[in-house]
Amino acid sequence: MFSPNLAEPDPPLPIVYQDAHLVAVHKPSGLLVHRSMIDRHETRFAVQTVRNQLGRHVYAVHRLDKGTSGILLFGLTPEAGRALSQAFEHQQVDKRYLAVVRGWPAESGDIDHPLTRQDDDGKPARDAPAPAQQALTHYQRLATVTLPVAIDRYPTSRYALVALQPHTGRRHQLRRHLKHISHPIIGDATHGKGRHNRWFAETFGVSRLLLACTALTVPHPVSGAPLALHCPPSADFMQVLAGLGWQEMALP
């Protein structure tokens, strides 16, 4: 039986889509999906917020990093939750992300780079070592900018807006893959560069990972028909894009 949290309720999360079997919400940056041993001090979690918001149990079927915003999907029944989880596990879900990265990557390409297992803190998994797993990400460069600011050793700094499509679901895959091609995502404290992250935070007043899941297509857990979900980046992300002149590039 569902028992709501009687403490002061968390602000509701915007609902992207809901039917009798599933619900998709827009998760903000900084919110964990569920409890983590690394973030023991956190008291807010998306799964609890959505449970309280809907007044019923929900079943997490995938995860977004704490710093990543965007579409987060839950099953509303155990059966729907299992079906959706299997769709993610079997790579039957098309996921699209937007990211602001340092430098100018090629116009498009594939990052085919195996990744070892990691724990939540970005460190190698503490259990028995396992071989690196296949990991593939497609990217497309949408916009570029050169700013007249010297952050590294050059008199100007270059950044790009990229669309990302992961074909596998390894932990921190997008962040690790963008670092691998020397174009880390802005705001990534683990894989990025602190000087660039601090400049963005000071200039735009936004100190978050600039990565957002903006589109998700998944087989419906009952009908099996493709269900296409879309949501624009959150207001804080759009604030940065507007400052760079890219706000129109981020809209569907």
Second rung of CATH, namely the architecture: 2-Layer Sandwich
What is the CATH class name?
A: Alpha Beta
Coarse structural class:
alpha+beta
Poorly predicted segments: none
Query: What name does the CATH topology carry?
Result: Pseudouridine synthase
Order of helices and strands: EEHEEHEEEEHHEEH
Round the Cα radius of gyration to an integer and report it. 18 Å
Globular, elongated, flat, extended or rod-shaped: what is the shape?
globular
Give a quick account of the main beta sheet: strands, pairing sense, barrel closure: 10 strands, mixed
The mean pLDDT is 90
Q: How many domains is the backbone divided into?
A: 1
- Report the total helices: 5
> Distance between termini?
40 Å
Q: Strand-residue fraction?
A: 25-35%
- DSSP strand tally: 10
Per CATH, the superfamily is Pseudouridine synthase
Helix content: 10-25%
Structural description of this entry:
The protein is of the alpha+beta class and 252 residues long. The protein has one domain: 2-Layer Sandwich (Pseudouridine synthase), CATH 3.30.2350. 19% of the residues lie in helices and 27% in strands. The chain is built from five helices and ten strands, in the order ββαββαββββααββα. The chain has helices at residues 46-54, 78-89, 173-180, 194-204, 235-243, and strands at residues 15-18, 22-27, 59-60, 69-75, 94-102, 108-112, 136-147, 157-166, 211-219, 226-230. Strands 1, 2, 3, 4, 5, 6, 7, 8, 9 and 10 form a ten-stranded mixed sheet that branches. It is globular. It starts with 14 loop residues before the first strand and ends in a 9-residue tail after the last helix. The mean pLDDT is 90.
